[in-house]
Amino acid sequence: MIKASLVLAFVGLSVLAASLSGAVAVPFYLPLSTLALAGVMYAGRLVPKFLRIFLVMLSATHLVLVALILGARAGLITGDYTGYVPPPSAALGATVFGAIIFGLAYVPVVRTVCRITDRYLESQADSLIRIPFIGLVQAREGTIGTWIIAILIAINLAQVALNVRLSFFSRDMFNALEAKDAAAFWYQLFVIFTPLAAVFVAIALTEVLLQNVLTIRWRAYLNTYYVGEWLGNGAHYRMQLLGRGADNPDQRISEDLRKFVESTYSLSIGLMNQAATLVSFVAILWTISAGFTFPGTNVEVPGLLVWVCAGYAILGTWVTHLIGRPLIGLNFEQERVEANYRFSLARLREYTEQVALLSGESAEQEGIARRFGQIVDNYMRIVIRLIKLNTFTSAYFQANVVVPYILTAPYYFVGKISLGQMQQVVGAFSRVESALTYFITIYTTLADYKAVLDRLTTFEGAIASAQRVGGESKLSITQASGGELRLKDLDVRLPDGSALLRADGLAFRPGERTLMTGPSGSGKSTLFRAIAGIWPFGEGQVLVPEGQTMMLLPQRPYIPIGSLRDAVTYPSRSDTYTDAEIAEALRTAKLPQIADRLDEERAWSQTLSLGEQQRLAVARALLAKPDWLFLDEATAALDEPTEAEVYRVIQEKLPQTTVVSIGHRSTLAAYHDRRIDMKRNENGLSTPVDLRQAEPAE
Ligand SMILES: Nc1ncnc2c1ncn2[C@@H]1O[C@H](COP(=O)(O)OP(=O)(O)OP(=O)(O)O)[C@@H](O)[C@H]1O
Fold this sequence. Notes:
single chain, alpha/beta, ABC transporter transmembrane region fold, Rossmann fold, 15 strands, disordered C terminus, binds adenosine-5'-triphosphate
């Protein structure tokens, strides 16, 4: 209600200003326009910030136009600019633009764009920007982005204004040629054209610079935001567990965000530029075609050239839409199959040894060929569609060159218009036509853009549902005093809801070394995941000792890309420990041969054997000194004497650490004080049975 009345107030004020400005009430016009601008700024708070910038800038342009008109009336601006947007049209134009922008705020796609964009524009993060002649300035990142967009809008509107002025230059120059007036010709060329061209070049350069600064800052911000959301609260892991929503998150973060930023910028400012061009040049076409009669008749049609141009452009746009529509779905599919293909290649690179050992090359080749086949199939569908589309658009664009001449020649030959006016019509016709057919030229970009938006939206949805699953999980991790780790009424389930294991009252005491055994698939690793707080499916409580640190070593350790130092200290920063400490930890973990190669960067996960990787993980634990250490078959790849040695050093170097291990080997029992065995009933439900005292497994 409030919104609607504000919009109405804005429209009313502008229309009032428009009607008054048409009359002689000049003194009222500026205050009224200023009031309208204030209304817009206030009402603009109701639309997303991204749209608000356009609203304010367009209203400000409206004021500038009014000032120009008033300047002309006061005799400060001279020359025959009949057809230049007169005050009523300027005010009405601003009103229409304002109404369109308010309307846009309710279009679902625009809302999605604004939601993502406003994250950047509303950012409160402190940032620095270097401004020429001023130096480094500190401001909020959102404020910096807002100002750059506002300046870019101003630059684009200034370019439209310059184009309008240049169309009058073209008219005057051709008229001088027709009249063989050399002085007027040179005057137009040097006094009018040269300074305008210089300004044009200067603002075009500024635009390129600002546009690039904006897109990289905007992308950097969104990149940090999305990576944060994806990694936050373990959403990345849960998304994979849930198995729905977003395939290829890497593509969405690296490519889709880049495309989103670039396309949002070019489409929004491009659209505004074309709309402003349309309004300005329609006014020129309308004025020139005054008194034109419908060909073959004496019937005068006001603004005949405008209607012909609009009909021509609408026909072109409509046919393009009919032919090009399927490209939206096809482009979406292309991105998906390309990403799948890239992922399968990256995965092969990761598992190259396993593939070589299994002689899986031909199976891999088949898989790769099949995935590439999907790329080719879809690509061919896109090509066929594009050929159809291009056949039409090329013919259409060729016709554009001659159509305005065909339309105006009869009027020129009967002396209704001068050569200069004919030339101006040709220019104006092509600008109006290209503005109207903007949709044609950006059709494929729009299709691609919609696909990018859809992918970002489903990615956000998948992150949100992963966060929700975590937030709503009935499996809670609670800090408790007493030093013990206890499981209370714990029901662990699989993602599909089926029961996996039940544990109640089981406690792990500090200082006690526990071994968990049990059949494969009985849920030992999943119980560890639940204790670590990353498994959301199930209910019950895990009471963890207050303020104590935990570390879990899986069977296959994760080794990040980078130096050996980074690999050993992960997930801590590599400068957390001295080189001497890191080297000592590696030697203690029975990896003396690599202890002096800390700076070496290589694919360590592919260079080190699994047993060596497991010892590297032990070195990590020796450095981190956790209060609780969970070893999930973390020494399974070691020979028995090395395994024994590893357990000995853990006990010696980490005497305060409570160790809980999972393992199948009977020899492990010797390094533990207690054994818990997972028993599985006939329904597949497992229960940990406390055997109190560790005994060699049979
Ligand atoms: N993300 C998942 N989605 C569906 N099922 C899963 C998932 N992770 C584990 N499971 C299932 O849960 C069961 C228990 O797996 P878990 O890895 O905990 O067993 P485990 O006792 O550690 O086995 P092993 O001794 O072979 O390592 C298995 O049947 C496994 O298939």
